[in-house]
Amino acid sequence: MSKKGSKLKKTLDESLEAVMVPEDKQSYEAPDNWVWVKLGKVLKAMETRDPTKLNSDTFTYIDIESIDNRNQKIESPKELFIWEAPSRAKRAVNEGDVLISLVRPYLKNIAMVETCHNEAVASTGFYVCRTLDLLDSTFLYYFLRTDVMTSYLISKTKGDNSPSVRSEDFLSGSIPLPPLHEQKRIVERVESLLEKINEAKQLINDIPRKVDQLRKSIVMRLCSGDLTVNWRNMNLDRRTARELLDEINMNVDVQTKSKKRIRSINDEIDVTSLPEIPETWTWERLINISDIQGGVTKGKKYGEKTKVSAPYLRVANVQDGFLDLTEIREIEVLPEEREKYLLKEGDILFTEGGDRDKLGRGTVWKNEIVNCIHQNHIFRARCFEGISPEYISIATKTEFSKTYFFKNARQTVNLASINLTTLGQIPIPIPPSEEQQEIVNIYSNLTRYLDEIEQQYLSTKKKLELITQSILSKAFRGELGTNNPEEESAIEIFKESLAQQLN
User: Which of 419, 324, 427, 320 is nearest to 379 (CA)?
Assistant: First the structure.
C-alpha cells in the first residue's frame, strides 16, 4: 500500500471511530448490518433566522407551547409581527426538520416540521435536527420519541428552575442506524402500526369531556329535584324544607342569643334567575343554615403568651372536591385560638380565592388529621342540625352556584376571590332532610360509576402508550420483520461516504 493510501486509510479509520459509538456505550445490541452512531455526526449544523430580516411584517413562531406533546405535532404556532419577536426566536426551521425541546425533555415536546410551517422561526429551547443523507428525518423523529432517548436526555438534564439539556449533550447521544432503505421500511411499518393505535385513541379521547359533562348534569338535576321525583312520590308525608328551616331558626336563636352573628334571615331571595325546585323545597342562604367563620391569621405576634403548636390547612390543601394532605404544616397559636379554629368532622371548607373555575366549591372535612385548624384564607361552614354537609358540598358545584361566585367575586386577570359575606349570601336549594340524604346517596353511586369509567379510560390510555413504546422499541431493534441482512451494511455505506469526503 502506498504512503498516500496508508494515510487515507488511517484518516478514514479515525473518522469512522469519531462517528461510531463504542460497543460498551451502546444502549442495546442492534442487527449486524446496523451501526450505532453519534447523533451529532448525522445532523447538519443548526441555522439562525432573524425575524426582523424577513421579507414580511409577520412571521410564524414555534415555541414550546406550540407543540401538542400528546400527539408530537406542531399544533398552535404563533403568527407574530416582526416587532413582537421574542429574544428566543432565532432557530431557522424548514420542512422536514425535526424539533425536539431540550427544556424538560420528559415532556416529549417533539415534532416534524410540515410544509405549512416551512421557513418558520423556532425558539432556542428547541434543537432543530436537519439530517444528512445517511439518515431519514422521519426515522429520526420516531427514534427521538422512544423511552431510550428520553431516558438519556433526562440523565443529562441540569438546572432547577428550567431543567434542560445542553446542545453538546444532545449531540453526544447515539442512534442505531440501519441502511437507508431499511430506515424507510421501518418508518412505513411504524406508521402503519401507529395508525391503528391512533384510531383507538380517537375512540377514547372524548371520554374525559363526556364524563365531565355527565358530572355537571348529575349535579344540576340532583339539586333541582329531577332525580328524586320517585322518592318524593313515595314519601309524601315527610316534613317540608320550610318546616325544617323554621325549626333551625328557632334552635339557632336560642343557641346564639348572646353572640353577634351576621344573619340575613329576613332577606328575600330573588328566585327569578334560579332553577325551579319542587314545592317541598325552598331557597335559603348559606349563612342561615350553617355557622361560617374564617381561620387563623399567620404571622401574629403573641409576645410572652403561652402558645401551642397545631397542624393547619392552607389553600394548597383544599382542592376542587378533595383535600391534598401530602404536606401539612404547623403553626403556633394561643390555646383559645386552637379551640376556636379547630375543625370538626362534617365541616365544609371553602377557599377564599383561586382559579375562577374552582372558586367557592365546598369540600367536606372528615377529620383526616386530629386537632387540625385552618388558615384565614379558608372559610369553614358548620351545618346546623338537619342540613347535610355532603349535600351542601354538592350544591356548591352547580352552574348557578358558579355563576353566583363569578358575579360577586373580586376578580383579577386569572384569579378571583370571595369574602365571608359573599360566601354567606349564596342561595342554596334546600330539600327536606331525608331527601338531602337520598341525593347524597344517588350522587355517591353515580360518581363512583363515573370514577370507574375514568379509571378505565386512564388504564386504556396507558396501555396504548405502552404499546406505542413497544412498537418503537421493536422498530429500533430491527424486530418488526423489515430488516434484510443481505443489504449492504450501514457501516460500509458510512465508509464510502467518509472516503468521498476525504478524497
Answer: 419
pTM, full prediction: 0.77
Q: At residue 208, what is the residue type? A: P
Query: Distance between CA 129 and CA 122 in Å, rounded?
Result: 12
- Helix/strand/coil for 158: strand
pLDDT at 269: 85
Residues 432 and 247: beta-carbon distance below 8 Å: no
d(CA 43, CA 45): 7
Q: How far apart are CA 402 and CA 398, in angstroms?
A: 6
pLDDT score of 115: 80
d(CA 80, CA 425): 46
Name the 3-class secondary structure at 349. strand
Neighbours of 299 (CB within 10 A): 5
- Per-block mean pLDDT, blocks of 10 residues, the chain (503 long): 49 72 89 91 93 90 93 92 93 94 95 86 95 94 96 93 93 93 95 94 93 95 96 91 89 51 58 91 94 90 87 87 89 92 94 73 89 92 95 93 87 80 93 96 96 96 95 94 83 70 56
DSSP letters for 233-283: HH-TTSPPHHHHHHHHHHHHHHHTTTS-----TTPPP--TTSPP--TT-EE
Contact (Cβ atoms closer than 8 angstroms) between residue 153 and residue 118: no
**Cα separation, 50 vs 261, whole angstroms:** 66
Give dist(CA 142, CA 480) in Å, integer. 14
In sequence order, the β-bridge partners of residue 111 are 99
pLDDT of residue 254: 52
Q: Could you tell me the three cell numbers for 41? A: 455526526
Burial classification of residue 8, based on how many CB atoms lie within 10 Å of its CB (0-12 exposed, 13-18 middle, 19 or more buried): middle
Q: Which pLDDT belongs to residue 9?
A: 53
Distance CA 131, CA 113 (A): 13
> Are 295 and 343 spatial neighbours (Cβ–Cβ below 8 Å)?
no
Task: Identify the H or E element spanning 78.
Answer: strand 78-81
Tell me the sheet residues that pair with 333.
308
Distance (Å, whole) CA 297 – CA 292: 16
Residue 390 parent element (H or E): helix 389-395
Contact at 8 Å (CB) between 498 and 16? yes
For cell 443489504, what's the residue? 487
